[in-house]
Structure formats: C-alpha cells, structure tokens
Amino acid sequence: MYLNYFGLQTEPFSIAPDPNFLFLSERHQEALAHLSYGLQGSGGFILLTGEVGTGKTTVSRALLEQLPEQTRTAFILNPMLNETELLATLCDEFGIRYAKRNITNKRLTDKLSEFLLAAHAEGEQCVVLIDEAQHLRPQVLEQLRLLTNLETNQSKLLRVILIGQPELQDLLRRRELRQLAQRITARYHLLPLQEADTERYINYRLQVAGAQRSLFDKTALRLVHRYSGGIPRRLNLLCDRALLAAYNDQVQVVGRAQIRHAAQELELDSSATRRDSRPVGVVAATVLALLLGAVGSWWWQQTTTTPAIDAVVPVVQQQPIRNLLRAWQLPQPASDETLCDWVVAYQLGCVSGQLRFDRIRALNLPVLLQLESGDWQWIAATDTQPADNWTGGFMALFPHPPGYSLANAETYQLWLQQQLNTYVAQPSQDLAELTQAVQQQHGLPITGELDGITLAWLASHHTIIGPRLQQAEPREQY
To answer: Which one of 148, 219, 260, 363 is most buried, counting C-beta atoms within 10 A?
Structure first.
C-alpha cells in the first residue's frame, strides 16, 4: 500500500527469508565465524541457540552457502521424530535407497554407514542441520550421537548442526546426554542486535527495497530498537507497521508518533522487550575445565575469577552490575548463578584484579570499579576519572575469539601468536617475548605471560563485536 508513496520497489520488511535482504550484523558474523571454525574441527556436533526471531535461520543459511562444493547436506525441519523416523529422514535427505517394508533401525543405520564411508572415500563431507532442535527427544539425540561414532583417524564422517531456542541448552545438560554434550566442539548463543546494528539493518533493507533517502528519523530508529529489543523479526513487523502509519498520516519520514502507534498495534512494550531474552544456563563446570585446560592452563589461569568477583553474586541486582550487562546486551542472570561462569554461554570471558586506572582504560572495555564499601561503580566508556573511594579493584567482561573453546591448544596458541605480531614492530615466534612487547607498548602490566588482563586487551581489539572505546591501530611491520 505504501510502496509508491515512499518510492519503494518491494516490501522492505517482509518476514519471508528473502536472500536478497540478507544482512549479517556483527553478532551474526561472529556466530558464523564460530560455527565455521567448528566445522573445520574434528568434533561431531555444533550448537547455535538464540531467542525466537534473533536470526538463527539467517546464520545457518549463510553457513551453508560457505560450505565447499563437496558437501552433502541433510535438513531436518520437523524435529518431532522418533529414532526410526529420524534415520529414515536422513536416508531420504541423502538420497539413500532402502526397502520401505520391514525397516529396522539397524538396516537404516547400516545404509547410512555405507553412504558415509563412500562419501568420505570420494572426498565429500556430510552435514546434518536440524532446526527447532529443542523439541528433539533425548532418545533421538542419542541416536544422532551413535551415528557420529563413525570416524576416521582425523575427523568424524558426519557433522550435526543443532539449531534451537535457549531450552536446547537445558536439554543438553541432562545426565543421559552428557556424552553428546562433550562432543559439541563449537557453540554460539545469538543475542539481539545492538542499537548501531539496528540502524544499519533498517537502512540496509530500505536500500535493497529501492529507497533513495532515509525514511526513519533518528528518534524513530532509537524507539524501534527499544520496542523491538533488537530482535530482527520484531524489527520487521514494527517497521512495516510504522511505514503504513506514516502513509496514513501522509508524512514523508517515520517519526516518534508512527513508531509508538505501530508498537501499540503490535502490543509491544519498550520495557518488556528489554527483559524478554531469558538467560541460558551455565555451561557445566567439568566440561568447561576440560576445554579450557586443553588450550593451555598456563595462560588461562589469570582470566578466572578472583575473590573480588565472587562479591558480584549477592549484589547482582545493583544498578552498576545491570549497567555492565546492558552494555553487552545481556539478560539478567538468576540470583544463584555466578556471573563469570554464566557469561561463558554468551562467548564472554571475565577478568578482575587490582590495577591502575590508566591501565584499566587501556583495556578498551566497559568496567566496574570496586569501592571501599565493597559495592561496584559503573564506569562508562567516556569517563576519564576513577570513582571516589575506589580501591583499585575492577572487573570487566571481554569477548572470546572464534574457536576459543575448541580442544586444540596448538591451533589457538597459533592464533594468539598471529594477533600479537600485529601489534609489535619486530615479529617473533616466541610467545612470551611477543606478550612482553605488547604489554610494554600498550601500558599493560609487564608479566611476560598471557594473563587475563593481556588476553582481555587483545580480545577487545581483535573481536568484531562488543562495546569498545576505540579501535587500536596495529603497528607497521618492518
């Protein structure tokens, strides 16, 4: 109805998955990087979770487009299957012929095994993608695990990508599925868009639809983010209704009034949407210890919580703590969960300790300062002075790079070496030497080890998402 009025060629905010409107925000790109890294590993399962409408399907489509030509894929869009139906569906998806009469799990499994071995011999990779996986029965998940037992000395013959809502993580923590949970080599929880990405998302879709000018003013863009909570599906619905309201009001640009009218029609509340994302649970401590231990405990130990961090648990309701979580667009954790364990599910690490304020600023991250009273003081990105009664204690969250949780110490240490070399004048193969040079040049405590503070600084300057002060400039290499 409003297309001609705004000079559009097609509907810019349709909720249909049109590839022409594919927009990968920074968080979608990070999810894609984690999952792509997982497919390169030797494990059998990859996990992508997120609230309804956050763009999980968008990420999975982009992932499949990146797969090499020698990849055979099977899609399971209806997870309400029993074990036999699952095996039969996989055979159908892979084009495996089997007798329809008197089928048994063993016969179907044998057929799949023969197919996977033949595909491997021809240099092909087989991938199964299961959407809405939170509805899978435990027995079906166990059947999938048994299928992934088929492997060579280097890799699994079948990779399984599980996509679902946060309840999927709860399902995988069940005791009978602990063996499957230990085979997940890459996982990512997709959070809503940040405000800057919301604006880019809206303008991108309008441009693809043929818009020659901006159709939303700045106030409207901020309200869209507030009412939608940064969830793409809500963004589409809200923007579509707002354009219709602007057409009815005969105004050329969507403003505050049209956004509020559209939100009222959709029954969206700006305060409720910010709390809508439920926190996922904590990753099992034993699994986390195994993963992190595999990448070298000698440098990771300093990133774990100090006694000061434990004080976060009883005061997690304090406004400064909520400000830190909001800076990363995280939901509120349960009161009985340790904050630094909880953020692992959101691809974040936790660092704390005693440090001078100028060195804290060098981390390029939002921080909390611990006061003499034991309370926490929020320090915004623009603050240049420490809080009154500050003891020197601080805490901060920092983003993990893609692949950080994979049990491959050699690969991850190689990544660290490559990143450190971009910040020194003289490249080196010595990790301790590189670390000390970076610490000295960038105002970090000089320890010669990749302690938590150094790793947080490195991650904050090399990851593609997260609230940061500024982008550091790598030094030229001579």
So the answer is: 363
